Amino acid sequence: MCGLLAIAMVLSSNMLHVYNLAFWLLSAAFVFDFWDGLMARRLGVETLIGKDLDSLADIVSFGLAPSVISIRFLLTIDEGDIWPYIAYLGVFLLPVCTALRLAKFNNDARQKIDFIGLPASVSGLILTAFICFLASLAGSESALYYKISFWSFLLIMVFVLLNSYLMNSNILFFSFKDTSKLLRGWTKQKIMVAVADIIIVVFLLTSLPFHICLLCIFIVYMLMNVLIHFFTRGRVA
Question: Where are the alpha helices (DSSP H) in 60-92?
Fold first, then answer.
């Protein structure tokens, strides 16, 4: 529902602040996605139908919605430019790769605790938060129809291609499903929580928008797992 509302909002409004509202809706979807899985595991009520329905919701919220938001933003380029047409081909790679990543997740017994590939929810929120950042740079609330630079288009494409690759890679991404790891020594989870706390404190002191804070946290999470993989050769067979 949050993903569908986010899509409806960005398609029905030409105001820049709509991207912030869409970001909050997808953030709510992220929280709901985490807690419904956690509660299902704790209560022992996991079912195959529930897992499939959860994945379908994730495809909408973290695959389709971020791609629609990105295209709505990219198509603000003046008519006659070739970039909007390339955007259709590039950005819609994201929901396809999200669906493939979730299909692998549902049928891979190795992903009970940690993830093999970037979680779809993190991928979707990284892209949406970055779109919010670009929208905030526009500095005008009057309308969407300002010219976006080629560099903005290029950076969005980089995020889309990178996320699409990482979601279906063999890189191991740690999760927070096993909360006991937060009570042990300096585990990866505890280090990530400590870094996230530092970032949140810095952003509270500087009064910067929350979407930038969340973008930084997720980028640190993504880089941390990629670096661990390449330095330890933690590729899963």
Answer: 65-74, 83-91
- CA–CA separation, 138 vs 26, rounded Å? 22
Q: For residue 150, what pLDDT is reported?
A: 67
**Three-state DSSP state, 207:** coil
Q: Which residues contact 44 (CB under 8 A, 6 or more apart)?
A: none
Cross-strand bridge partners of residue 116: 172
Task: Give the count of alpha carbons within 13 A of 111, CB side only.
Answer: 18
Based on the number of CB atoms within 10 Å of its own CB, is 119 exposed (0-12), middle (13-18) or buried (19 or more)?
buried
Q: What are phi and psi of 31, to 5 degrees?
A: -65, -45
Chain centre distance of CA 135: 17
Supply φ then ψ for residue 115, to 5 degrees.
-105, 145
Calculate ∠ Cα 143-147-209, nearest 5°.
Answer: 60
Predicted local distance difference test score (pLDDT) of residue 166: 92
pTM of the model: 0.83
Helix (H) or strand (E) holding 220: helix 210-232
pLDDT at 147: 54
The residues that bridge with 173 in the sheet, in sequence order, are 115
pLDDT along the chain (237 residues), means of 10: 82 77 87 73 68 82 89 68 68 88 82 84 90 74 52 82 90 77 67 88 84 89 89 58
